[in-house]
Amino acid sequence: MKPNSTNVIPGEDRLGVDIRDVEPESITTIIDEATACLDRLERERGVKTEFTPDLDIDPVPMSDRCREGMLAAGANAGYDVPELVSGAGHDPMRIAAATDAGAELATHRVASLRLGAEGVVVDEARTANVVIGADGANSVVARQLGQPRNPAGHRAVALRGYTEEAGGLDELTFDWKSAEGMAYSWAFPLAGGRANVGAIRLTDRLSGGRAALQQEMAHDLPDLYPRADSVKGHTLPLASRRPDPAPAPRALLAGDAASLINALSGEGIYYALASGAMAGHAAVTATDPGAAYRSRLRGRFAAHWRHTRAIAALLRLPGPVTSMLITADRDPETLEALLDLTLGDGTVTARRVRRAGTALARHAAARASPRAAKATRPHGDPALTRRR
Ligand SMILES: Cc1cc2nc3c(=O)[nH]c(=O)nc-3n(C[C@H](O)[C@H](O)[C@H](O)COP(=O)(O)OP(=O)(O)OC[C@H]3O[C@@H](n4cnc5c(N)ncnc54)[C@H](O)[C@@H]3O)c2cc1C
Protein backbone atom coordinates (compact mmCIF):
# COMPACT_ATOMS: atom_id res chain seq x y z
CA MET A 1 0.00 0.00 0.00
CA LYS A 2 1.39 3.46 -0.85
CA PRO A 3 1.74 5.63 1.18
CA ASN A 4 2.22 2.83 3.68
CA SER A 5 -0.25 3.68 6.32
CA THR A 6 -3.28 1.56 7.16
CA ASN A 7 -5.70 4.31 8.12
CA VAL A 8 -5.60 6.58 5.05
CA ILE A 9 -7.03 6.07 1.55
CA PRO A 10 -4.00 4.74 -0.35
CA GLY A 11 -2.72 6.23 -3.59
CA GLU A 12 -1.63 2.82 -4.82
CA ASP A 13 -2.47 -0.69 -3.67
CA ARG A 14 -0.78 -3.89 -4.84
CA LEU A 15 -2.25 -7.32 -4.26
CA GLY A 16 -0.38 -10.58 -4.88
CA VAL A 17 -2.50 -13.57 -5.84
CA ASP A 18 -1.38 -17.18 -6.24
CA ILE A 19 -3.77 -19.20 -8.37
CA ARG A 20 -3.33 -22.98 -8.37
CA ASP A 21 -5.40 -25.76 -9.87
CA VAL A 22 -4.93 -29.14 -11.51
CA GLU A 23 -6.74 -27.92 -14.65
CA PRO A 24 -5.19 -25.07 -16.68
CA GLU A 25 -8.73 -24.10 -17.81
CA SER A 26 -9.78 -23.40 -14.20
CA ILE A 27 -6.79 -21.09 -13.77
CA THR A 28 -7.73 -19.25 -16.98
CA THR A 29 -11.33 -18.89 -15.73
CA ILE A 30 -10.17 -17.38 -12.42
CA ILE A 31 -7.84 -14.96 -14.23
CA ASP A 32 -10.69 -13.92 -16.57
CA GLU A 33 -12.95 -13.29 -13.59
CA ALA A 34 -10.25 -11.29 -11.80
CA THR A 35 -9.58 -9.07 -14.83
CA ALA A 36 -13.36 -8.59 -15.39
CA CYS A 37 -13.59 -7.48 -11.76
CA LEU A 38 -10.74 -5.00 -12.29
CA ASP A 39 -12.50 -3.62 -15.39
CA ARG A 40 -15.66 -3.13 -13.33
CA LEU A 41 -13.70 -1.31 -10.61
CA GLU A 42 -12.23 1.03 -13.24
CA ARG A 43 -15.72 1.80 -14.62
CA GLU A 44 -17.49 2.17 -11.31
CA ARG A 45 -14.82 3.77 -9.13
CA GLY A 46 -12.76 5.82 -11.56
CA VAL A 47 -9.52 4.10 -10.51
CA LYS A 48 -6.75 2.72 -12.73
CA THR A 49 -5.97 -1.00 -12.43
CA GLU A 50 -3.32 -3.29 -13.84
CA PHE A 51 -2.96 -7.09 -13.86
CA THR A 52 0.59 -8.47 -14.34
CA PRO A 53 1.26 -12.23 -14.19
CA ASP A 54 4.75 -12.97 -12.75
CA LEU A 55 4.85 -16.68 -13.38
CA ASP A 56 2.78 -18.93 -15.58
CA ILE A 57 3.38 -22.66 -15.19
CA ASP A 58 1.07 -25.43 -16.34
CA PRO A 59 -0.04 -27.91 -13.66
CA VAL A 60 1.85 -31.21 -13.88
CA PRO A 61 0.74 -34.59 -12.51
CA MET A 62 3.17 -36.34 -10.18
CA SER A 63 4.81 -39.36 -11.79
CA ASP A 64 2.74 -42.56 -11.55
CA ARG A 65 5.81 -44.42 -10.28
CA CYS A 66 6.15 -42.08 -7.26
CA ARG A 67 2.42 -42.09 -6.51
CA GLU A 68 2.24 -45.86 -6.72
CA GLY A 69 5.36 -46.19 -4.53
CA MET A 70 3.82 -44.00 -1.83
CA LEU A 71 0.46 -45.77 -1.97
CA ALA A 72 2.20 -49.16 -1.66
CA ALA A 73 4.38 -47.93 1.25
CA GLY A 74 1.27 -46.66 3.07
CA ALA A 75 -0.63 -49.88 2.45
CA ASN A 76 2.35 -51.98 3.64
CA ALA A 77 2.44 -49.97 6.87
CA GLY A 78 -1.28 -50.67 7.35
CA TYR A 79 -2.55 -47.15 6.59
CA ASP A 80 -5.58 -46.22 4.60
CA VAL A 81 -3.99 -43.70 2.22
CA PRO A 82 -6.20 -41.07 0.57
CA GLU A 83 -4.97 -39.39 -2.63
CA LEU A 84 -4.69 -35.62 -2.41
CA VAL A 85 -3.88 -32.99 -4.99
CA SER A 86 -0.69 -31.17 -3.98
CA GLY A 87 -0.95 -27.41 -4.02
CA ALA A 88 2.83 -27.07 -4.10
CA GLY A 89 4.10 -29.39 -6.78
CA HIS A 90 7.35 -27.49 -7.35
CA ASP A 91 9.46 -30.61 -7.81
CA PRO A 92 7.26 -32.26 -10.46
CA MET A 93 6.92 -28.92 -12.29
CA ARG A 94 10.68 -28.40 -12.41
CA ILE A 95 11.34 -32.00 -13.36
CA ALA A 96 8.68 -31.80 -16.08
CA ALA A 97 10.37 -28.70 -17.52
CA ALA A 98 13.73 -30.53 -17.64
CA THR A 99 12.34 -33.78 -19.06
CA ASP A 100 10.32 -31.85 -21.66
CA ALA A 101 13.61 -30.26 -22.75
CA GLY A 102 15.12 -33.72 -23.28
CA ALA A 103 16.59 -34.69 -19.88
CA GLU A 104 16.05 -38.21 -18.62
CA LEU A 105 15.20 -38.60 -14.93
CA ALA A 106 16.77 -41.56 -13.14
CA THR A 107 16.87 -42.02 -9.38
CA HIS A 108 19.86 -43.83 -7.94
CA ARG A 109 21.99 -43.62 -4.75
CA VAL A 110 25.56 -42.99 -5.90
CA ALA A 111 28.30 -44.97 -4.16
CA SER A 112 31.31 -44.55 -6.44
CA LEU A 113 32.66 -42.28 -9.12
CA ARG A 114 35.58 -42.73 -11.49
CA LEU A 115 37.13 -40.34 -13.98
CA GLY A 116 37.69 -42.42 -17.10
CA ALA A 117 38.84 -41.62 -20.63
CA GLU A 118 35.25 -42.24 -21.75
CA GLY A 119 33.76 -39.73 -19.25
CA VAL A 120 32.75 -39.75 -15.58
CA VAL A 121 31.71 -43.26 -14.61
CA VAL A 122 29.08 -43.55 -11.87
CA ASP A 123 28.91 -46.87 -10.00
CA GLU A 124 30.45 -48.59 -13.03
CA ALA A 125 26.94 -48.46 -14.47
CA ARG A 126 26.49 -45.09 -16.16
CA THR A 127 28.94 -42.84 -17.95
CA ALA A 128 28.32 -39.12 -18.08
CA ASN A 129 29.98 -36.32 -20.01
CA VAL A 130 29.74 -34.09 -16.91
CA VAL A 131 28.67 -34.97 -13.35
CA ILE A 132 27.44 -32.33 -10.89
CA GLY A 133 27.60 -33.52 -7.29
CA ALA A 134 24.71 -31.79 -5.51
CA ASP A 135 24.42 -34.54 -2.93
CA GLY A 136 24.53 -32.47 0.23
CA ALA A 137 26.75 -32.06 3.28
CA ASN A 138 28.03 -35.66 3.28
CA SER A 139 28.64 -35.63 -0.45
CA VAL A 140 29.78 -38.99 -1.79
CA VAL A 141 30.77 -37.28 -5.04
CA ALA A 142 33.09 -34.82 -3.22
CA ARG A 143 34.76 -37.63 -1.22
CA GLN A 144 35.16 -39.77 -4.35
CA LEU A 145 36.87 -36.82 -6.02
CA GLY A 146 39.34 -36.58 -3.14
CA GLN A 147 37.86 -33.46 -1.52
CA PRO A 148 38.16 -33.49 2.30
CA ARG A 149 35.35 -32.74 4.74
CA ASN A 150 35.41 -29.27 6.29
CA PRO A 151 37.52 -29.25 9.47
CA ALA A 152 36.05 -28.27 12.86
CA GLY A 153 35.63 -24.49 13.04
CA HIS A 154 34.35 -24.50 9.47
CA ARG A 155 31.42 -26.78 10.25
CA ALA A 156 28.23 -26.17 12.19
CA VAL A 157 25.57 -28.49 13.47
CA ALA A 158 21.87 -27.61 13.40
CA LEU A 159 18.80 -29.19 15.00
CA ARG A 160 15.24 -28.49 14.01
CA GLY A 161 11.96 -29.74 15.53
CA TYR A 162 8.24 -28.99 15.68
CA THR A 163 6.20 -28.18 18.77
CA GLU A 164 2.51 -29.04 19.15
CA GLU A 165 1.85 -25.59 20.66
CA ALA A 166 3.39 -22.21 19.88
CA GLY A 167 3.22 -21.02 23.52
CA GLY A 168 2.00 -17.51 22.61
CA LEU A 169 4.78 -17.03 20.02
CA ASP A 170 3.54 -14.74 17.25
CA GLU A 171 6.71 -13.74 15.36
CA LEU A 172 10.06 -15.05 14.21
CA THR A 173 12.47 -14.97 17.16
CA PHE A 174 16.25 -15.38 17.23
CA ASP A 175 18.33 -15.81 20.35
CA TRP A 176 21.95 -15.02 19.43
CA LYS A 177 24.87 -15.94 21.66
CA SER A 178 27.62 -13.41 22.10
CA ALA A 179 31.25 -14.42 21.48
CA GLU A 180 30.37 -17.93 20.23
CA GLY A 181 30.73 -17.27 16.50
CA MET A 182 27.59 -18.21 14.60
CA ALA A 183 25.40 -19.53 17.42
CA TYR A 184 21.69 -18.95 17.78
CA SER A 185 18.34 -20.56 18.45
CA TRP A 186 15.23 -19.72 16.48
CA ALA A 187 11.48 -20.19 16.75
CA PHE A 188 8.60 -19.18 14.54
CA PRO A 189 4.88 -19.94 14.61
CA LEU A 190 3.32 -22.26 12.02
CA ALA A 191 -0.25 -22.63 10.81
CA GLY A 192 -2.35 -24.75 13.15
CA GLY A 193 -0.84 -23.29 16.34
CA ARG A 194 2.45 -25.19 16.13
CA ALA A 195 5.99 -23.80 15.96
CA ASN A 196 9.24 -24.56 14.14
CA VAL A 197 12.15 -24.40 16.61
CA GLY A 198 15.85 -25.03 16.17
CA ALA A 199 19.40 -24.20 17.12
CA ILE A 200 22.73 -23.94 15.37
CA ARG A 201 26.30 -23.98 16.76
CA LEU A 202 29.84 -24.23 15.41
CA THR A 203 31.11 -27.76 16.02
CA ASP A 204 34.36 -26.54 17.63
CA ARG A 205 32.33 -24.58 20.20
CA LEU A 206 30.01 -27.43 21.10
CA SER A 207 31.22 -30.25 23.30
CA GLY A 208 28.67 -32.98 23.87
CA GLY A 209 27.30 -33.12 20.31
CA ARG A 210 23.60 -33.36 19.56
CA ALA A 211 22.50 -33.96 23.17
CA ALA A 212 24.30 -30.79 24.30
CA LEU A 213 22.76 -28.78 21.47
CA GLN A 214 19.30 -30.07 22.35
CA GLN A 215 19.84 -28.96 25.94
CA GLU A 216 20.98 -25.50 24.84
CA MET A 217 17.93 -25.22 22.61
CA ALA A 218 15.64 -26.10 25.56
CA HIS A 219 17.43 -23.46 27.62
CA ASP A 220 17.07 -20.76 24.95
CA LEU A 221 13.43 -21.58 24.18
CA PRO A 222 12.13 -22.66 27.56
CA ASP A 223 8.40 -22.72 26.71
CA LEU A 224 8.72 -24.52 23.40
CA TYR A 225 9.15 -28.29 23.55
CA PRO A 226 9.59 -29.98 20.17
CA ARG A 227 8.11 -33.48 19.77
CA ALA A 228 11.02 -35.87 20.28
CA ASP A 229 10.35 -37.71 17.00
CA SER A 230 10.30 -34.42 15.07
CA VAL A 231 13.84 -33.33 16.00
CA LYS A 232 16.36 -33.82 13.18
CA GLY A 233 20.00 -32.81 13.14
CA HIS A 234 22.44 -32.17 10.35
CA THR A 235 25.98 -30.99 9.71
CA LEU A 236 26.44 -27.73 7.81
CA PRO A 237 29.74 -27.29 5.93
CA LEU A 238 30.42 -23.54 6.00
CA ALA A 239 31.75 -21.48 3.12
CA SER A 240 34.59 -20.19 5.33
CA ARG A 241 36.49 -23.30 4.04
CA ARG A 242 35.50 -24.70 0.69
CA PRO A 243 36.71 -27.66 -1.37
CA ASP A 244 37.61 -27.10 -5.01
CA PRO A 245 34.16 -26.75 -6.65
CA ALA A 246 35.52 -28.36 -9.81
CA PRO A 247 37.97 -31.09 -8.74
CA ALA A 248 38.05 -32.32 -12.34
CA PRO A 249 37.17 -30.50 -15.57
CA ARG A 250 34.02 -32.64 -15.91
CA ALA A 251 33.09 -33.22 -12.25
CA LEU A 252 31.60 -30.24 -10.39
CA LEU A 253 30.25 -29.73 -6.87
CA ALA A 254 27.30 -27.50 -5.98
CA GLY A 255 25.42 -26.46 -2.84
CA ASP A 256 26.31 -28.12 0.46
CA ALA A 257 28.53 -30.60 -1.41
CA ALA A 258 30.75 -27.58 -2.22
CA SER A 259 30.45 -26.20 1.37
CA LEU A 260 28.58 -23.13 0.24
CA ILE A 261 26.67 -22.48 3.48
CA ASN A 262 26.83 -18.89 4.72
CA ALA A 263 29.24 -18.76 7.68
CA LEU A 264 27.27 -15.96 9.36
CA SER A 265 23.78 -17.39 9.16
CA GLY A 266 23.92 -21.11 8.30
CA GLU A 267 21.65 -20.45 5.31
CA GLY A 268 22.37 -22.58 2.28
CA ILE A 269 19.36 -22.72 -0.02
CA TYR A 270 20.21 -19.55 -1.97
CA TYR A 271 23.78 -20.73 -2.59
CA ALA A 272 22.63 -24.25 -3.54
CA LEU A 273 20.24 -22.84 -6.13
CA ALA A 274 22.70 -20.26 -7.47
CA SER A 275 25.63 -22.71 -7.72
CA GLY A 276 23.44 -25.49 -9.16
CA ALA A 277 22.24 -23.16 -11.92
CA MET A 278 25.83 -22.03 -12.66
CA ALA A 279 27.13 -25.62 -12.71
CA GLY A 280 24.31 -26.73 -15.01
CA HIS A 281 24.96 -23.82 -17.36
CA ALA A 282 28.71 -24.51 -17.46
CA ALA A 283 28.08 -28.23 -18.05
CA VAL A 284 26.07 -27.64 -21.21
CA THR A 285 27.79 -24.56 -22.64
CA ALA A 286 31.52 -24.61 -21.80
CA THR A 287 34.29 -26.59 -23.43
CA ASP A 288 35.99 -26.75 -20.01
CA PRO A 289 32.99 -26.85 -17.63
CA GLY A 290 35.21 -27.03 -14.52
CA ALA A 291 37.15 -23.86 -15.34
CA ALA A 292 34.02 -22.00 -16.46
CA TYR A 293 32.08 -22.96 -13.32
CA ARG A 294 34.96 -22.11 -10.96
CA SER A 295 35.39 -18.72 -12.57
CA ARG A 296 31.64 -17.87 -12.50
CA LEU A 297 31.31 -18.95 -8.90
CA ARG A 298 34.33 -16.86 -7.93
CA GLY A 299 33.08 -13.85 -9.91
CA ARG A 300 29.75 -13.88 -8.10
CA PHE A 301 30.82 -14.85 -4.59
CA ALA A 302 34.58 -14.32 -3.96
CA ALA A 303 34.20 -10.90 -2.28
CA HIS A 304 31.14 -12.08 -0.36
CA TRP A 305 33.03 -15.12 1.00
CA ARG A 306 36.01 -12.96 2.02
CA HIS A 307 33.82 -10.52 3.89
CA THR A 308 31.57 -13.09 5.58
CA ARG A 309 34.65 -15.06 6.71
CA ALA A 310 36.15 -11.93 8.28
CA ILE A 311 32.90 -11.06 10.06
CA ALA A 312 32.41 -14.68 11.16
CA ALA A 313 35.82 -14.48 12.89
CA LEU A 314 34.76 -11.22 14.61
CA LEU A 315 31.64 -12.91 15.97
CA ARG A 316 33.89 -15.03 18.20
CA LEU A 317 34.77 -11.88 20.16
CA PRO A 318 32.48 -10.37 22.80
CA GLY A 319 30.64 -7.31 21.49
CA PRO A 320 30.28 -7.53 17.71
CA VAL A 321 27.01 -9.54 17.69
CA THR A 322 25.31 -7.05 19.98
CA SER A 323 26.67 -4.03 18.08
CA MET A 324 25.67 -5.50 14.74
CA LEU A 325 22.12 -6.25 15.89
CA ILE A 326 21.73 -2.85 17.57
CA THR A 327 22.80 -0.98 14.45
CA ALA A 328 20.60 -3.12 12.17
CA ASP A 329 17.69 -2.51 14.51
CA ARG A 330 18.25 1.28 14.41
CA ASP A 331 19.09 1.75 10.75
CA PRO A 332 16.99 0.12 7.96
CA GLU A 333 19.84 0.44 5.43
CA THR A 334 22.23 -1.43 7.74
CA LEU A 335 19.54 -4.09 8.26
CA GLU A 336 19.22 -4.43 4.47
CA ALA A 337 23.01 -4.78 4.15
CA LEU A 338 23.09 -7.39 6.92
CA LEU A 339 20.35 -9.39 5.22
CA ASP A 340 22.28 -9.21 1.92
CA LEU A 341 25.36 -10.53 3.68
CA THR A 342 23.62 -13.32 5.57
CA LEU A 343 21.09 -14.45 2.98
CA GLY A 344 22.53 -13.40 -0.36
CA ASP A 345 25.76 -12.32 -2.03
CA GLY A 346 26.21 -8.97 -0.23
CA THR A 347 29.55 -7.43 0.74
CA VAL A 348 30.79 -4.87 3.25
CA THR A 349 31.57 -1.45 1.80
CA ALA A 350 33.27 1.53 3.45
CA ARG A 351 29.97 3.42 3.21
CA ARG A 352 28.10 0.66 5.00
CA VAL A 353 30.71 0.54 7.77
CA ARG A 354 30.49 4.35 8.20
CA ARG A 355 26.70 4.21 8.31
CA ALA A 356 26.67 1.40 10.88
CA GLY A 357 29.26 3.32 12.92
CA THR A 358 27.03 6.41 12.94
CA ALA A 359 23.98 4.36 14.01
CA LEU A 360 26.01 2.77 16.79
CA ALA A 361 27.37 6.13 17.96
CA ARG A 362 23.80 7.50 18.05
CA HIS A 363 22.72 4.49 20.07
CA ALA A 364 25.56 5.05 22.56
CA ALA A 365 24.62 8.72 22.85
CA ALA A 366 20.98 7.79 23.28
CA ARG A 367 21.81 5.40 26.10
CA ALA A 368 23.70 8.15 27.81
CA SER A 369 20.67 10.46 27.53
CA PRO A 370 17.18 8.85 27.65
CA ARG A 371 15.64 11.91 25.94
CA ALA A 372 17.93 11.49 22.93
CA ALA A 373 16.95 7.80 22.89
CA LYS A 374 13.35 8.77 22.20
CA ALA A 375 14.37 11.13 19.41
CA THR A 376 16.78 8.80 17.60
CA ARG A 377 14.73 5.59 17.58
CA PRO A 378 12.70 5.28 14.35
CA HIS A 379 8.94 4.68 14.66
CA GLY A 380 7.64 1.15 14.46
CA ASP A 381 11.08 -0.38 13.98
CA PRO A 382 10.69 -3.92 15.33
CA ALA A 383 13.26 -5.27 17.77
CA LEU A 384 15.39 -7.77 15.91
CA THR A 385 16.13 -10.08 18.74
CA ARG A 386 15.59 -10.95 22.34
CA ARG A 387 19.04 -10.53 23.83
CA ARG A 388 19.85 -12.51 26.93
C1 LIG B 1 17.94 -27.85 10.62
C2 LIG B 1 18.33 -27.09 9.40
C3 LIG B 1 17.64 -25.93 9.07
C4 LIG B 1 18.03 -25.19 7.94
N1 LIG B 1 17.33 -24.06 7.64
C5 LIG B 1 17.67 -23.36 6.54
C6 LIG B 1 16.94 -22.18 6.20
O1 LIG B 1 16.00 -21.78 6.88
N2 LIG B 1 17.35 -21.48 5.11
C7 LIG B 1 18.39 -21.89 4.32
O2 LIG B 1 18.73 -21.22 3.34
N3 LIG B 1 19.09 -23.01 4.62
C8 LIG B 1 18.74 -23.75 5.70
N4 LIG B 1 19.45 -24.90 5.99
C9 LIG B 1 20.53 -25.32 5.06
C10 LIG B 1 19.90 -25.92 3.79
O3 LIG B 1 19.01 -26.96 4.16
C11 LIG B 1 21.00 -26.51 2.87
O4 LIG B 1 22.04 -25.60 2.71
C12 LIG B 1 20.39 -26.83 1.49
O5 LIG B 1 19.35 -27.77 1.62
C13 LIG B 1 21.48 -27.39 0.57
O6 LIG B 1 20.91 -27.88 -0.62
P1 LIG B 1 21.67 -29.02 -1.43
O7 LIG B 1 20.79 -29.29 -2.61
O8 LIG B 1 23.10 -28.66 -1.65
O9 LIG B 1 21.69 -30.29 -0.46
P2 LIG B 1 20.48 -31.13 0.15
O10 LIG B 1 19.26 -30.29 0.32
O11 LIG B 1 21.04 -31.82 1.35
O12 LIG B 1 20.14 -32.18 -0.99
C14 LIG B 1 21.03 -33.23 -1.30
C15 LIG B 1 20.24 -34.33 -2.00
O13 LIG B 1 21.17 -35.34 -2.44
C16 LIG B 1 20.65 -36.62 -2.11
N5 LIG B 1 21.79 -37.52 -1.91
C17 LIG B 1 22.64 -37.58 -0.87
N6 LIG B 1 23.57 -38.54 -1.07
C18 LIG B 1 23.29 -39.08 -2.27
C19 LIG B 1 23.90 -40.13 -3.03
N7 LIG B 1 24.96 -40.79 -2.60
N8 LIG B 1 23.36 -40.44 -4.24
C20 LIG B 1 22.26 -39.77 -4.69
N9 LIG B 1 21.64 -38.78 -4.01
C21 LIG B 1 22.16 -38.45 -2.82
C22 LIG B 1 19.86 -36.39 -0.81
O14 LIG B 1 18.90 -37.43 -0.64
C23 LIG B 1 19.24 -35.03 -1.07
O15 LIG B 1 18.01 -35.15 -1.78
C24 LIG B 1 19.10 -25.64 7.11
C25 LIG B 1 19.76 -26.83 7.43
C26 LIG B 1 19.39 -27.53 8.56
C27 LIG B 1 20.12 -28.79 8.89
Walk me through what this model shows:
With 388 residues, the protein is an alpha+beta fold. It folds into 4 domains: 64-100, no CATH class; 113-150 and 240-314, FAD/NAD(P)-binding domain; 155-237, D-Amino Acid Oxidase, Chain A, domain 2, CATH 3.30.9; 320-376. It is built from 11 helices and 10 strands. Strand 2 and strand 3 form a beta hairpin. Helix 6 runs antiparallel to helix 7 (289-314) and helix 10 (350-368) crosses helix 11. The chain is globular. The model is unreliable at 375-388 (pLDDT under 50). The chain binds flavin-adenine dinucleotide.
Keywords for this entry:
13% strand; 10 strands; 4 domains; single chain; FAD/NAD(P)-binding domain; binds flavin-adenine dinucleotide; disordered C terminus; 388 residues; alpha+beta; three-stranded antiparallel β-sheet; five-stranded antiparallel β-sheet; D-Amino Acid Oxidase, Chain A, domain 2
Give a short synopsis of this structure.
Helices cover 40% and strands 13% of the residues.
What is the H/E order? Answer: HHHEEEEHEEEEHEEHHHHHH
* Coarse shape: globular
> Going across the major beta sheet, what is the strand order?
6-7-8-5-9
The strand count comes to: 10
Topology (SSEs and partners):
Layout: H1 24-45, H2 64-76, H3 90-100, E1 113-116, E2 119-122, E3 126-128, E4 131-133, H4 140-144, E5 155-163, E6 173-176, E7 184-189, E8 195-202, H5 209-220, E9 232-237, E10 251-253, H6 269-285, H7 289-314, H8 320-330, H9 332-343, H10 350-368, H11 370-376
Parallel strand pairs: 4-10
Antiparallel strand pairs: 1-2, 2-3, 5-8, 5-9, 6-7, 7-8
This protein binds flavin-adenine dinucleotide (FAD).
